[in-house]
Amino acid sequence: MSLASLSCPGLVLRRVSDAADRPARDARWAGLMQAAQAGDSRAYETLLRECLPLLRAICRQRLREPAEIEDAVQDTLLTLHRVRHTYDPARPFRPWIAAIADRRALDRLRTLVRRRGREADIAAAEHVGVAGDAEARLLSADLRGAVKELPESQRTALQLTKIEALSLAEASERSRMSIGALKVATHRAVQSLRRRLGGEP
Fold it and tell me: Which of 85, 127, 81 is nearest to 104 (CA)?
């Protein structure tokens, strides 16, 4: 436990409480989503309001600028509205919506990369980490040749899952590849590009 935690016992208790409350909150969100799918607009509004802090936290991990974070949150809400009928109530709700928020934040990051026109300009999002950085670099001009040299299945998987940021289900439908094959092809493509960049042995 950190010294900061020891000096802030209230913070520790709040975090423990949050963790303990999470299963109940997740079940509540799943119930609200199921009600929203059935046409309950009040349940839908309640769900969106309660999810906002989570969505902002996820987008803040990818982006630094407050305006970009809020844009990513709004993109997430729009996507949720468009695909809410695809949610399976038998599955946990939090990972489902978290994945949508993460993809929309990455979309914003890629837009920033395109706007600035060169890889060095992603410094504003360095905290994304190695994997996120590599994903953003896929859009830089000096990598286009390397992407073109990938096998067709890997190029397709990379384009759909990383650059267009489609869900695996959407990418599978577009590519006519199974979800398992998409995962393997995407992983191999990213590993191949990292090796060519000198990021991995």
Answer: 81
